[in-house]
Structure to design on (371 residues):
């Protein structure tokens, strides 16, 4: 047990996740006598929960072994990957069965919204990425059919081929019953602000599918100093990466072209709510080709939703609710990267009204993901 936990934590560190407190694993593994009881009246829907199939981990391993110069952040994060799951952590990511359900039960999580873990298929060539995305979606759909009340699937796509990605979004929503799309931030250093990717936005808007932009290591052209300073993980690099990506999407006029499109970003909005005044304030000096019709805050309050994945911290949630509105802040845990039952208690104890808490844990997710 002790050895397992230590190797698990080591792998979490390698993957760049925030270390979960060891006590959470004690509660999961050894003491299930004190599950978190759902308070009357609201479900807890965790909206940024990770999984991944062995086929993708094996292909990651193959890419890592080739030591690709164009994926320095991926190599820095995952160089110790064990694709078999025998050391525990990839096993937790792969598991969509009773063990995951038991962990959810112990933490009082009613529903997990499941995202293919970063960087997903975005480090592969277009054909490999497209095929493995579809295969992973089929596997996830099967798990969702098995646990229809506990899992909600998000469609994984390979942005390397935007047209096939758009078709996969339609298949995910219409055929597999998924409720959105996951994009693990940059794809080989390119961002969705580039119009060549906009088939993806068109398909997402047409299928009423929110796109969750999940972090990964910063793009190759910016990651070098992050890796040198060991700041390429959840401490800084992930947030910089997604804050950059989100602002690039806003500035490219994506929401003017696709006004019904919804984006979701995690980790307290990756710093954007905290910086929003300054982002708006400096907007007028931006190049005209890098300005949307409205100020960035307009889209943050209309098209973009944030979750508290990895950040079970009342000051952040209260601040984000104040800045973006209570309808734009959703609950997430970040399982299995972060699994700490006491963090669920902390969020239950948020000093907000019952109605706002229900929005945070349940009804905002139901509305954004069309549950
Ligand atoms: Ca995550």
């Amino acid at each position: 047990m002790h050895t397992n936990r230590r190797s698990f934590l080591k792998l979490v560190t390698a993957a760049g996740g925030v270390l979960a407190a060891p006590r959470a694993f004690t509660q999961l593994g050894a003491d299930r006598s004190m599950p978190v009881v759902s308070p009357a009246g609201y479900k807890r829907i965790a909206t940024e929960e990770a999984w991944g199939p062995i086929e993708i981990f094996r292909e990651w391993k193959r890419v890592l072994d080739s030591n690709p110069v164009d994926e320095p952040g991926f190599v820095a994060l995952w160089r110790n990957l064990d694709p078999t799951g025998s050391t525990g952590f990839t096993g937790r990511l792969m598991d969509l069965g009773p063990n995951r359900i038991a962990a959810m039960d112990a933490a009082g999580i009613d529903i997990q919204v499941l995202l293919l873990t970063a960087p997903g298929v975005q480090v592969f060539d277009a054909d490999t990425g497209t095929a493995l995305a579809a295969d992973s979606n089929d596997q996830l759909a099967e798990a969702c059919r098995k646990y229809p009340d506990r899992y909600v699937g998000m469609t994984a796509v390979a942005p390397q081929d935007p047209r096939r990605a758009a078709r996969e979004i339609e298949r995910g929503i219409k055929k597999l019953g998924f409720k959105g799309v996951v994009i693990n931030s940059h794809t080989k250093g390119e961002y969705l602000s580039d119009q060549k990717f906009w088939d993806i936005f068109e398909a997402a808007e047409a299928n009423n599918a929110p796109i969750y932009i999940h972090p990964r290591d910063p793009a190759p052209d910016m990651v070098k100093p992050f890796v040198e300073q060991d700041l390429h993980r959840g401490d800084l690099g992930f947030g910089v990466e997604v804050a950059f990506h989100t602002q690039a999407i806003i500035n490219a006029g994506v929401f003017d072209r696709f006004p019904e499109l919804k984006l979701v970003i995690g980790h307290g909005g990756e710093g954007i709510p905290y910086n929003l005044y300054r982002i708006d304030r400096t907007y007028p000096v931006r190049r005209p080709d890098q300005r949307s019709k409205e100020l960035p805050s307009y889209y943050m309050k209309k098209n973009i939703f944030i979750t508290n994945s990895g950040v079970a911290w009342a000051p952040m949630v209260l601040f984000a609710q104040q800045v973006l509105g209570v309808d734009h802040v959703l609950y997430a845990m970040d399982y299995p990267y972060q699994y700490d039952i006491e963090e669920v208690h902390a969020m239950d104890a948020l000093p907000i009204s019952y109605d706002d808490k229900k929005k945070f844990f349940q009804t905002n997710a139901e509305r954004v993901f069309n549950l």
